[in-house]
Amino acid sequence: MSVIEAAPAKINLALSVIGKRDDGYHLIDSLVVFTAHGDSVTAAAADTDRFTLSGPFARQLPSLQSADNLCIRARDGLRLFLRGMGHPAPPVALKLIKNLPVASGIGGGSADAAATLRCLLAHWRFRPDTAPIAALALTLGADVPMCLASRAARATGIGECLEPVAGLSGIPLVLVNPGVAVGTREVFRRLTDRQNPPLPPIPAFSGPVDLARWLSETRNDLERPARALAPSIGDCLARITESGALAARMSGSGASCFGIYGDMNGAMMAAGLIGARHPGWFVAATRTL
């Protein structure tokens, strides 16, 4: 019997870089949400470990057994943890359906790793305390713990300190990527100011208009260096704004951008217009979870 887990896209609605640790990790203050659109991971019993890929962006991923493949690293790390607990972790067939562009600032790889952890915990029938699994997730990447939770949160530290935020479900969004991969390390390397103010207090949001108003007082500190690497980010933001979005911004380290809309009909119409004008772009209307 197969187990299927969604790997929702992660959107940084606002992202402040507020410092840098001695080990090179940057300290952030970010409001994060997750969307109904994303990848998916399936686990099934097998005689030997297998990993297969499909979906529109499968070809963008590293080789199936590469050390950079976060799903494989998540599988192997969780197996090692479970065996240390005396719990069996037999061979498994994993399948990733890749619907999100790679290196695009919407947490695709981190979401896939987190979904792999959730999927295998269910497949291998193990329910540990959340703390050790969150610690394991952090070894895979700073964004993996927030993707493991996949719920709206204020993320601080290097992204691992999560404070749930209410009132952000069901917000209509359009996600847009110009087909350009942007390296997170290079974006941070080009960041000139690493001591920025944190986010303002986060209120109880009453809907998209309220959220857009609050976002106008915030920023994404990674947008400027990302746009220097990928000027087409500016084109994405312009198209989103022209389509009637209440707010438009780049997510994470780019190049994906998002627009917030007053209702789902408006988001779907905007996605249709942007997609028709730029058929080579990734465009998706969705809503927050």
At a glance:
With 289 residues, the chain is an alpha+beta fold. It is 33% helix and 27% strand.
Question: How would you explain this protein's 3D organization?
Answer:
The two termini are about 25 Å apart. The mean pLDDT is about 95. The protein folds into 2 domains: about 5-165, Ribosomal Protein S5, domain 2 (2-Layer Sandwich), CATH 3.30.230; about 170-285, Alpha-Beta Plaits. Helix 1 packs parallel to helix 2 and helix 1 packs antiparallel against helix 3 (about 130-140). About 35% of the residues lie in helices and about 25% in strands. It is globular, with a radius of gyration of 19 Å. Strands 1, 2, 3, 4, 5 and 6 form a 6-stranded mixed sheet that branches. It has a 4-stranded antiparallel sheet with strand order 8-9-7-10, with helices on both faces. The protein is α+β, with helices and mostly antiparallel strands. It has 9 helices and 10 strands.
Report the CATH topology name of the largest domain: Ribosomal Protein S5, domain 2
Model regions low in confidence, pLDDT < 50 over at least 5 residues: none
- Please state the overall shape, judged from the principal axes of the Cα atoms: globular
The number of distinct helices, counting runs of at least 4 residues, comes to 9
How would the blueprint of this fold be written?
Layout (H helix, E strand, L loop, with lengths): L2 E18 L5 E20 L4 E5 L15 H15 L7 E6 L10 H16 L6 H11 L3 H6 L3 E4 L4 E4 L7 E6 L6 H7 L17 H8 L7 H7 L2 H11 L4 E4 L6 E4 L3 H14 L4 E6 L2
Parallel strand pairs: 3-4
Antiparallel strand pairs: 1-2, 2-4, 2-5, 5-6, 7-9, 7-10, 8-9
